[in-house]
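Fig. S4 source data, part A: sequence.
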Amino acid sequence: MKVERVKYGDMDNNAYLITDEASGESALVDPGFFDENIERVVNEVGDKLKYILLTHRHFDHILGAKSVKERTGAKICIHPKDACGLSHAGFSLAQSIGVSQSALTPDYTFNETSKVRLGESTLFVIETPGHTVGSVCFLCNDCLLTGDTLFRLGVGRTDLPTGNYSQLKQSLNRLYEMPGDYKVYPGHGNTSTLDVERTMNPFMIEARNK
């Protein structure tokens, strides 16, 4: 499996193109805006893009999904507790900054038991509420895509609607307890590893100690 980081926007956002190298089937994680970088990736992949996977409801992770779906026919997937962000600019927070949003309905919703298959590769969904009530991470092989749950030496904020710091600490502790090391691909900023976060991230350390 190949993971390509695609930077976009002015908030140091990351989308990720996940590709099963045997089949060429791909998924795009968190296309927040349909800018030239996202458009380039979409044009390269074409109808091999099977899914648009969204880690949570916020506008800077979902607004590009409509254009990507129109270009490729890829299926939009999100946790049911955050699906409201696709249909209402208030729930995605787009309204709070004056950004327009077209209402969407997800093709699929997923939960803890869900698996996303791309050719010979399988992505597993991990429910990690805290940043939002429906935040998730995706796990495939040695790669952990963490959205706004876990950043390099940081975490996503919890002072927005449905954010909950107590829940976030539980989610961080759950990631801490996962056996082995993983490459961490966050929704903003630079990549990391789970071992680095276990030993150096003050929020993960706090979560572990309480």
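Fig. S4 source data, part B ends here. The chain has a mean pLDDT of 96.
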